[in-house]
Structures are given as structure tokens and as C-alpha cells.
Amino acid sequence: MSLSLNLPRNTTVNEKRNIIIVALVVSVVLMLAKFSAYFITSSNFVLTDAAESIVNVVASSFALFSIYIASQPRDENHPYGHGKIEFFSVFLEGALISIAGIGILFKAGYSLINPQPVHDLLVGAIIIGVTGAINGGLGYYMINKGKTLKSLTLDADGRHLLTDMVTSGGLVVGLLLIYFTHYLWLDSVLSILVGIYICYSGYRLVRKSVAGLMDETDFAVVEHIIEVLNDQRKPEWIDIHNLRAQKYGHELHLDCHMTLPNYFDLNRVHQEVTLVDKLINEKAGVPTELFIHTDPCLPECCHYCSMPNCPIRSEPKRVDIEWTMENIIRNKKHYE
């Protein structure tokens, strides 16, 4: 038997959209400020931050679009909803960050061979410092909201802004170092270091998006679900196995096999499955749609079954089997 819980439509779509709109407006303003700093200083180091700000604008624009798509209800063509669009948003953001980093590496490498004069570094440092502080505050806010609203897009956009804050902080230090030492070659060398860091940040986002698109197991989520099931376990739930989880945006889709006493009628089976469904949705902290296939118990289950007053028990209970990642994801009853 299987049970599917009809989840309510996400009531936080407007809040997500408003956060992304704010991020988009801020990104445009800060991009103009950073390019102004570049034209004032002619510094490649400043250009690294300005180039990444273009990515911020594009990424926020696509994030706004992806949140709109993800909020659409399920239809015949998308029976699991549209939540996976968020993984595409993260992939695009990571790819753009990586491209920006590669471009910075080429530009800095060329300038290292053919150095160009820089000037007004203190003015540039002040502008970049202010933009970095704004991005940092907005990034922390978006990450917290991403966790609260279960939005991968908000979380990814927020982490990108934190990356921007780190690079901006390093840029300010670098500009001051160049200003006081007058070593112009530092402009290109520091740009190369930042470019490598940006490429690595882009790779991490791409890796995260590909993992989601390939339905890679989120072990932290599954471990938490297993912990909840162990804490609330009932004697009727003899074992759970073949547990699999997939994430579609802010929702989790979970299926498993559940062994119940074979003398339960259909109403009792439905009652137990409904309890598991309700338990996970209330305690696991993520909206979850469950598909539970129920198996009848066999005599081989008796040695670890806790069901009291069982009329068909063939032997007394001898062991307690805790549900762990190892035995709950296998497609086997626990006695096998």
C-alpha cells in the first residue's frame, strides 16, 4: 500500500520573490559603483570585483524567474512539481561565476606581463569596502531566509554574496597594500589569487546543482528522518527499508517499504502509514511527500519484532535492531 500526502501550495512564494527583487536592485546599484571604482583606479584588482558583480545581476534575474517557475502547481507534464528549476538556477550561477573567474585570470595574467599604471587607490578601496559590507549583510540575510523558506535559490544567491564580501575585503586589503608599497605587480598577482578563489566558488555551486539534478542522496536530511523515526518508533512498525529521498525545490519526496503485522486489515494499515506520514511532516522540518509500500511480516521477523500479544509469533523477541542509514536504505527486510 502507498500513501501520498497532498501538500499545500507554498505560501512563502511572495516573500521569496520580494527578497530576490531587493537583491536584484541592490546588485545593479553595487555593480555601477564597482565599475565606477574601476574607471577611477584602472586597477585589474578592482575589475575582478566589478566583473563578478555582473554575475550577481544575471544570477538574481534568473533566480527571480526560477522562483516563479518553482511556485507553479503540479500539472500533467510535471507530476512532481517544478521545484528542480532551482537546481538549474544554481547551475547557471555557478557557471557564470566560473566564467568570470577564468576571464579575470586571463586579464590579470596579461597585465602581469604588460603592467598598467593605477591611481586613486584609496577612493577605490572605500567604494569597494562599502559595497562588500552591503553584500555581506544581504548575503547573511538571504542564507537565513533560504533555510527558513527551504529555498535552494535564496541560499545559493546568499552564499554568492558572501563570496563577494570576502573578495571585496581581500581587495580592500590588497589595494591598501599596493598604495603603501607601490608594488604595481601586486595588482595582477592579487587578481590572479582572487580569480582562483572565484573559480573554486563557482565549481562548488555547479557541483551542488548537478548533485540535485542527479538525485544524489542528501545524507543529512535522511539521517534526520531516520533519527525522527527511531525516536517515535512504534511496535507495529516492524522495520522500514528501501528508503529513498529526492528533493524538488523546497519539497522532499520520500519512498520506502514498511513491514507491518500480516494480520492487520486495510484500515489499520492505512492508519499506520498515515501516522508515519504525519510524523515526518511535523518533526523532520521539511515538507515531505511520502509513498510507502507496506510488506506483511514473515516468521523470520519474529526475533526482532516488538509487537505485544502477537497471535502468530513463532519465537520470542531476541534482539533490538536500531534503524540506521545502512539497514534502512537497503532493499531487504532486516533479517536478511
Main features:
Alpha-Beta Plaits; 3 strands; 336 residues; disordered N terminus; Alpha-lytic protease prodomain-like; mainly alpha; three-stranded mixed beta sheet; 9 helices; elongated
Question: Can you walk me through this structure?
Answer:
Helix content is 62%, strand content 9%. It folds into 2 domains: 13-213, Alpha-lytic protease prodomain-like (Up-down Bundle), CATH 1.20.1510; 219-328, 2-Layer Sandwich (Alpha-Beta Plaits), CATH 3.30.70.1350. With 336 residues, the protein is mostly helical. The protein has helices at 13-41, 44-70, 85-113, 121-148, 152-181, 185-213, 219-231, 266-283, 325-328, and strands at residues 239-248, 251-260, 288-296. Helix 1 packs antiparallel against helix 2 (44-70) and helix 2 packs antiparallel against helix 3. It is built from 9 helices and 3 strands. The two termini are 22 Å apart. Strands 1-2-3 form a 3-stranded mixed sheet, covered by helices on one side. This is Cation transporter. Residues 222-297 form the Cation efflux protein cytoplasmic domain. It holds the Pfam family ZT_dimer.
CATH class of the largest domain: Mainly Alpha
How many strands?
Answer: 3
CATH topology grouping of the largest domain:
Alpha-lytic protease prodomain-like
CATH homology superfamily name of the largest domain: Cation efflux protein transmembrane domain
Helix proportion of residues, in percent? 55-70%
Tertiary shape: elongated
Task: Compute the CA-based radius of gyration.
Answer: 27 Å
Give the CATH architecture of the largest domain. Up-down Bundle
Q: What percentage of the residues does DSSP assign to strands (E)?
A: 5-15%
The total tally of domains equals: 2
